[in-house]
Records
---
Amino acid sequence: MTDLTALKYTAEHEWVLVDGSVATVGITAYAADKLGDIVYVDLPAVGSTLAEGSIVGEIESTKSVGELFAPVNGTVIEVNDAVTANPELVNSEPFDAGWLLRVEFESLPALLSHDEYAALTND
Amino acid sequence: MTTSPPKLSPLHQQHADAGASFTDFGGWQMPVRYSSDLAEHHAVRTAAGLFDISHMAELSVTGPQAAEFLDFALAANVSALPLSKAKYTMILDEQGGIIDDLIVYQNAPGEYLVVANAGNRAPVVSALGTRIHGFDAALTDGTEAIALIAVQGPASRSILEHTQGLTAAPESAMGHTLATLPYYACTGMRFHERPVLVARTGYTGEDGFELFVSEADAASLWSALLEAGQPFGLVPCGLAARDTLRLEAGMPLYGHELSLDVQPVQVGLGRVIPLNTKSVDFVGRDAVVSGPRPGARVLVGLQSEGKRAGRADYAVFQGDSEVGIITSGALSPTLGYPIAMALVDPAVSEVGTQLDIDVRGSRIPATVVSLPFYSKEDK
């Protein structure tokens, strides 16, 4: 089980796990719950260049479509093929097996701490 | 526009205790899902689901000229509706546009219950209030006093038959049992000596019942149904599942398939307007006799492959020409492929026509198919 306090977050409900120069990115349980049952995940290709804040993927539930924003500038080095095959992993294990992509970055932008993100979603 | 806070169902606390997520719908805060909208959807197709639809508007029409008034106000031939029967109909404006789709029940001798969509309660009440002038009839809006609970799915009848406290009402003039109650009919029953109106109607494409009960009795009836339903696989279901269920069943939703800008015939509901058998005048008659303007778009079903669904307001193309717009769409939980309803130009409405849906910049091929997408008889 991932330590949620060790993660960084964005206002677009993504989480970022930083390990050296690699960021693992997913969406939060809050976002997955809001979307409902996720039935389709569209991720960027390995090797593609991401610009922070741009739309790089889509997460569709039966009811709606969520956009995946790049939380950092960088290059996609790995995508989670397991969630493409089994999108429900994003609902069941959003912080673990439901991760979406790994990005090699040069510098990190300002991201939210766990407490800051919790305050944002405290509704 | 109203800025008042959303109304709460008399069952709100039950939903909150069950961990429901809520959404604002038609001015009400209603459950969108309890846990998984897919699981809720499948439960209705294979067992049963329990829905709180207390947001729906219940309007009662009484008086010596109740039927004559509704004959004039609605598209249906209400005076021909027998006691205990229900009729799916519309209330039209002078241009033949749809103010709302409705179910009308003759729920007591000479009395009619009109069930309208939550979001259209104000325009329906307003139109009926205007049209009632000159008739010896009375209109009462009972929405706040009445809770409406739907039990939908193949196990529905067994669940109602096993519900503690739900018994026949010998005093009911309608006298059906759950076993003999036909589709689109209603009967009076009792729930612990309190009256409940049970209708065999629904919005899921499965067998099912809708129970009208006083808001004071709603919580105990909800609990009794849940308890009786547990051995049958009954689960509480939110509006998300209700929407995918009705879409598979090809049932229109106001604000999506239906609006003031479309006439019933455009959305496949011409049969609902009894022009050949209804001799009395009604609001919108001249317009629907004339028909919509030439070339007006018509409702079709679209089926695609893969997993990406066209959704409401996405454009539909044939080659480079925009030929329509999606009104509702989703990845069908039962069928496993994307389905949509769309208003398209008549020239491309033939079953089998190949079209494209613009899904956020990419074109997804789609084939025009007949509605509904899913029918319980085909299982």
---
Amino acid sequence: MPNIGRNLVGLFKYRVLIQNLVSRELKARYRGTVLGFLWSFINPLLLMVIYTIVFGFIINPRDPAFDNNPILYALFLFCGVLPWTWFSSSSIESSNILMIQGNLIKKVLFPAEILPVVVVTSNFIHFLLGVPILLAAKALIAVFVPRAPGFSPYLAFLPLVMLVQFVFSLGFGFLISSLTVHFRDIRDILSNLLTFWFFATPIIYPMTFHTIQESSFFRAFLNLNPMTHIMQGYQNTVFYGRMIPWKRLGVTFLVGCALLVVGYLVFDRLRDSFPEEV
Amino acid sequence: MNAIEVVSVSRVYQKYSARHRFQTFKSALLKGDFFKSLRAEELVTALDDVTLRIPAGMTFGVIGENGSGKSTLLKVVAGIAKPSRGAVAVRGKVAALIELGAGFHPEISGRENVFINGIMLGLSKREISRKFEDIVRFAELEEFIDAPVKTYSSGMYMRLGFSIAINVNPDVLLIDEVLAVGDASFVPKCLDRIDDFRRRKKTILFVSHDLATVEKICDKVAWMKSGRVRALGEPKRTIDLYLQDVADKKEAEFSRRREEVDLEHIPAEEGRREARWGKREVEIRRVALRSLRGEPKHVFSPEEGMVIDIEVHARERVKDFVFGVGIFNSQGVSCYGTNTHLEEFRPRAIEGRGRVAFRIDRLGLVNGTYYLDVAVHRADGTPYDYHRNLYSFLVSSRHKDVGISRLPHRWRFSPSVKMLPPRKGR
């Protein structure tokens, strides 16, 4: 066990490399596009528009949580979809990263464990770029929509929620990236799993939705999902302006830490097989 | 003091089949024996109990056929692959030139790639800034350094990769066949850099198929075959052992092919290299290639001689006959041809069995495969039995000269032309 601690801290000594690889990822991602970095803002914005039209205006849920107002519902969606995108693209990229960077692992003495870190970090930065859009939308709605919840001091807990998600995503990333090297099937399983997971997390519906509150099975199921609490963290701090569910989020953090340890252990165990398998 | 110590190292690779992988996945899911199921049953031994001790400051060459374990050895020394058994110890900073430019990102500029690649190889950002000019100048990429790497040619790519790696300034340099892509002006530059390393008493492990370069720059050479060190020692001796082994292998291949020549059934296909024609009033029954000492042989060095031994048989007494031979290279160019008529021999008579030997004192051909025409015909050219390209032999030499024939020659320079003789062993 102390070994893992040392190894994880050992990641720190690669911080310059991680930092450079992350900035390379960010630079390379939109290289050659006309709008460049603006895509980091436009992508979540377009996604929001689609969700608002489909779920807000077409399906048009009547829920008191949003004061029966599709605009408020869209903001609620935005609070969940933005961090979910961070998680899902981190996971999908993690599942491919060792194969994509196979040359580094095969031909250069390269610390493979930094690759999932780079993936999660660069997606985190993308997420961070979306946060100002979220807050701007929130501010606009607070001003123009009557009875919309305003900003609250609980917004200060937002970084804490991000930390929990970071640890959880990284643990998941380690696990997925190393296992996919041996079982390529995981890539396909993962994309389906993520779709299911998305709908099994209160992102497009609130925890207070009547069907969930009426069914103890649904409630228990959702509460077992770590992403539920992370998403509620975002929704509470940004949308409702409430305290984070700190007990549940605390447990989620511990689960995230455990996943990180397990993920790293599996990664470390499989590490020697990477050069010939990727 | 040894810079590299490899002590009884074995490296076993796992061989998976598609079916096996599926079973692994299934058994991992069903039986839950996840780690155990990753152990494959089929194993390939890439390194088999290899022990090498390379003193600091030595340039050590490793030669051998493809798949003999050279690259695996280098990867084990570099720490990229872990030995299955045994121990590896390397003293000092290591730089491995296994694949140049591995890890370049195609979308970003050469400049940014230099920094990231440098950091990957263990340089600090400040060190790279300091060496940046040198790196770019050495790679001859001043004009293109800000262009995305995806626009580079493979030569530019390789030059930049080499330039970064060499500027890491390691104590131990591992080189794996990376100079093969360089053009005629860049390779000597690289070799100069390697020479520079030698002078500064750095340790170099050099894996290459370029035997002339190995012989030139290495202090000691190991020859690897099927994962084992077959010979280790003085470069020229070791290379000769290796070449002898290669020649033996080719010889075996050639004699196998030779046995397959069925003189009675030469398929008469359009465009085939081999053919036989003639009414066989005088028949060529057998053709054998031999060394001057009379042993059957198919792989020759240019300095060697060759005897073409021809068995003929004339059904009836024939008075008008000419024996001829022709040597063609693989492009079908005639390298030499002659016959007894051209050389003004005067045929009298042939009947029954006979033997004709064509003796070449010194082959003097360049590297390559050669095909042989052997014929007996009338003075006017009407063939009795013409064997077209039915026989072949190989000339294998370490000289890199080109053309058809290796003319006997000598260079001479006036004192004002400063020219050093070839390095040792030439």
